[in-house]
Structure formats: structure tokens, C-alpha cells
Design a protein that fits this description.
Rossmann fold; single chain
Length: 192
């Protein structure tokens, strides 16, 4: 499967970026390919309607659409900010929800999505995840009903940010493989 990785945090040293690095490693171990959302899209301006006419923003938007269209599965890891998803991630969804000219639906429609979160605190973003799940479903995504919230993330990584907790890695593998299964074409047996 082609997996698109989206971090809700764009900052250097982000815990969610570290978690997505581990997600990418585990996805490769499971024989999937991964691509990260382009760095160009980290500077996407906050959405408003008039910006849709801006040539530079149109380039960013078409890159975003291409990356989403090319993905069989999208795996997202977002920080929790006051119980909600990050403003950056919200903005990415808002831009991606805009239909391209001549299209009847957005590129998000029908995309299979798996959700992760990392936080320095003990709960790992668990208040935000069901909200993100419902938010993504409202955009037409098919969201895996379970998610992985990694609390005390700093204690589970080494000094280079590498996830060292084997139990957490097992949870990542489980959610990656189940989410990829959701994206396999449904096999309907012919009636006998
Ligand atoms: C405005 C603000 C609100 C936050 N709210 C929460 C929260 O509700 N739950 C939580 O676990 N952490 C919260 N945090 C802490 C973030 O989880 C922490 O900054 C985290 O490292 C951000 O993710 P990142 O490392 O991927 O950038 C908040 C941080 C900020 C700055």
C-alpha cells in the first residue's frame, strides 16, 4: 500500500513527528511504502476563500491533492491542543476539502485513515482522537475506529527521538496493518 504520513505538528523536535518516524519504520517492516506530506505544505496559509485565487497557494493546493490522491491510506499523528486537533492539521483538512474544478467531491472522500497521537503528558492526546476521528469522517474519510495515543512520549524515546518502547511499536504495527486491510478491495464471493 502507498501510505501518506501527515503530522499535525510542523515544529523541529516534534513528538508527533518522532511517532510518525516510528510509524514509517513499522510500515516498511510490513512491506508498505510511505511518503510524508511535503514540507512545502507546512507553510500553507490559514484558509480563506480569496486565497484560492492566489497562484502560489494554487500550487500548494495541487501538490496537496496529488499527495492525497496517490495514497491508499493516510496515517495521521496530531498533538492535542486544549483537547482538540492542531490548527495546522485543521487547516490542511480545510484546504483538502475544497473540490478541484469539475470534480464532484474532494480528494478526501473515501480515503482510509488511521489515527495516532503523542504527548508529553500521561494521556497522549486521548481527548482529541475521537474528535479528530469524527472530523475526518465528516470530510468523507473512512476512519479506523481504534487509535493509538502515546502518553509520556519523551520517556519512550532515546536522545535522537527514536521510539524505543517495544509495546508501543507493537500497537503501531497492529493499527497500521488493520488500517491497510480496510483499504483492500472488498472481495464479494459470487453466489453458488
Ligand atoms: C496551547 C497548548 C495546548 C495544549 N493542550 C494539550 C492538551 O490538551 N493535551 C495534551 O496532552 N497536551 C497539550 N499540550 C501539550 C502538547 O501535547 C505538547 O506541546 C506536544 O509536545 C505538542 O506536540 P509536538 O511535540 O508534536 O509538537 C498543549 C500545548 C499547548 C502549547
Amino acid at each position: 500500500m502507498n501510505i501518506l504520513l501527515i503530522s499535525g505538528s510542523t515544529r523541529e523536535g516534534s513528538l508527533n513527528k518522532s511517532l510518525l518516524d516510528a510509524v514509517a519504520e513499522e510500515a516498511h517492516n510490513l512491506k508498505h511504502q510511505t511518503t510524508s506530506l511535503s514540507r512545502q505544505l507546512a507553510s500553507f496559509p490559514l484558509y480563506h476563500f480569496e486565497l484560492e485565487e492566489d497562484a502560489a497557494v494554487q500550487n500548494q493546493l495541487s501538490l496537496l491533492r496529488q499527495q492525497i490522491e496517490a495514497a491508499d491510506v493516510i496515517l495521521i499523528s496530531s498533538p492535542e491542543y486544549n483537547g482538540f486537533l492542531s490548527p495546522h492539521l485543521h487547516n490542511i483538512f480545510t484546504w483538502a476539502s475544497r473540490r478541484a474544478a469539475g470534480k464532484s467531491h474532494s480528494v478526501l472522500e473515501g480515503k482510509v485513515v488511521g489515527l495516532f497521537a503523542a504527548a508529553p503528558g500521561p494521556f497522549g492526546g486521548v481527548r482529541m482522537l475521537p474528535r479528530l476521528s469524527s472530523f475526518a469522517a465528516d470530510h468523507g474519510c473512512w476512519v479506523h475506529p481504534r487509535y493509538v495515543a502515546v502518553g509520556n512520549m519523551a520517556a519512550k524515546t532515546d536522545e535522537s527521538g527514536q521510539l524505543t518502547c517495544s509495546e508501543t511499536r507493537q500497537k503501531l504495527r497492529n493499527l497500521i496493518s488493520q488500517t491497510c486491510k480496510m483499504a483492500e478491495p472488498v472481495q464479494i464471493a459470487e453466489p453458488a
